[in-house]
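Structure ticket #2291
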Amino acid sequence: MRVIGVCRFSYPALGGFKRMHETVEAREAYLYEATRMELRFAHFEALALPSIRAQTDPEFTFLIVIGERMPEPYLSRLHDLCAPVPQIKIMPRPPQKHRLALQRAIQEELGDNEVDTLQFRLDDDDAMGVDFVAQCRSIARRTSRLRRREPRMVIEFNSGFSARLSAEGISAEPVITAFWACGLGVTFPAGDTRTVMNYGHHKLHHSMPAVIQPRPPMYIRAKHDDNDSAAKFKTGPLKPLDDAGRQLFRDRFNVDEAEICRIFANQAALRGKA
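Resolution: structure written out below.
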């Protein structure tokens, strides 16, 4: 089984954002504004990237879809950050509807698609458990009899954390949720032309069976001012991590609070210069 993930990083999609713009140029001006880009890079470097880099099963591909006109220095910065992680492939795409762009990126990477696949999506400001790929592959093996009849199947990890990052560290709350994009994968049979991006993640269980695994915690979803789905992203109060929480974040997600403080202190300094 081939495992493939997809992420968009400040991709100027036609639609797909809560904040709408009349032209591609207006969308790009919004996306590539300096303060916003510093916030996106800070979360990517603090959450998504370390969790991808630390996967215990390295046999996967992670596609990062970007716009063809991402300006410098951001383009080189993204390539430099991702270069040490061989699983990451940066894919520039022309402006399209965001689901279509990500579908085509996956299909292009899969080619003739001669084996079963497990596909997942991850936002650039979220993290997944370091054993996400390994756990998904294990569950796919253990459900092989089910998948003979229902080859498209959701593997859903429904527990994780909502978190806010800052120069002071991490404030978080454990959550149990239903079909958040950052905690699930979908199996597809060999030759299937559909992808994880053909479905709304919150309605996947309307189309296919789901295996729900409540442990271990498998995601961190970031809360911040540029979160496009903030209106729907309501959780309880966030509390600073204690020592046990810091260790859990290191062990489960390869996310280190001291590194968070460094990244966000630097981000705040750069924002002050803008």
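Closing remark: The longest helix spans residues 34-53.
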